[in-house]
Amino acid sequence: MSRSLSRPTRGKTQPGRFRLLDPLLVGRLAGIAAPDVVDVGIGSSPRTTLELHVALGRRGRTTGLDLDPARVQALCDLDEPGLHGFVGGFDADLPPVDLVRAANLLRQYKLDAVPDALLAMGRWLRPGGLLVEGTTDRHGDRGVFRVFQRTADGLVPDALVFVSDPARSGFAPRALTPYLPRGMGWHGHPGAEVDTLFTAWKQAFERARDAGARTPAELFAGSAAGLAEIGLATTDPAGHAEGRVVVPAPPGARRGLEVARPE
Q: Where are the domains of the chain?
């Protein structure tokens, strides 16, 4: 993969920006004693890379990858066991890992460059490994992430994850649409297409409100439960209370997106 595909990140990540996402990643890696993780784009402060490492219990190896040597050095200066820095881009020669997190990265890319960027990051994964890519707002109060898994068929969609902190930012389903991942292709049966999903979510929101939900947190959790009841989201009351909705990829989508080209 040409280094020309790699671009410096804006570096605006704030502490706690991925607080709603990271517990999900911890859960997905719970069965791995010492996970190997790559965080793409350290940012002007290494704080969110450190936060991921801490959330994982400081077990395994967490590598922050960035084109800027100064950012990598700032991460290394933390002198945290198991936390490492690597100067490089999408052509970086990394050992196989269990998870790649690429947050607030591909929004800076032209649409036609996104598939190759996803594929490049997918090549770092060992079989069964996860690529998590998406976008949040400045404070991490709203965001959307797509999860891919590396299989024998290549990089295939696993889930779409919505995060929201309704106590801080309020909640309405359509308020999450600006954070849909860049160039997202979400293929499958009509009930899993994004627009249909948001229509169903709005209906679940209205049902929750009619049932007595009033606060933004109640409306988020109630509407998330409503999506789960009709099979569009996982049943996860704890995750809903923490501000997450996980929409699994339907069986048809697991045949792969355009980026799911095996090596």
A: 3-165, 167-246
Element housing 11 (H / E): none
Joined tokens for residue 10: 């804006």
Angle at CA of residue 25, ends 83 and 238, nearest 5°: 135
Model pLDDT, residue 186: 44
What's this model's pTM, rounded to 2 decimal places? 0.89
CA atoms of 68 and 25, how far apart (whole Å): 26
Please, are residues 17 and 137 in contact by the beta-carbon 8 Å criterion? Answer: no
The answer for residues whose C-beta is within 8 angstroms of residue 260's C-beta and 6 or more apart is 148, 153, 154, 155, 156, 157
Query: How many Å apart are CA 226 and CA 206, to the nearest integer?
Result: 10
User: What is 3-165's CATH topology?
Assistant: Rossmann fold (3.40.50)
The number of residues in the chain equals 263
Run of H or E including 233: none
The predicted-structure confidence for 70-99, as pLDDT tens digits, reads as follows 999 999 999 999 999 999 999 999 999 999
Pick left, alpha or beta for residue 16 (phi over 0 → left; psi -120 to 50 → alpha; otherwise beta): left
Distance CA 41, CA 34 (A): 22
- Report H helices in the chain: 22-28, 47-55, 69-76, 114-122, 166-169, 194-210, 216-229, 237-242
Cα gap 140→232, rounded to integer Å: 24
b/e burial code for range 185-206 (CB count within 10 A of at least 16 → b): bbbbeeebeeeebeebbeebbe
The CB density around residue 215, as the number of other CB atoms within 10 Å, is 13
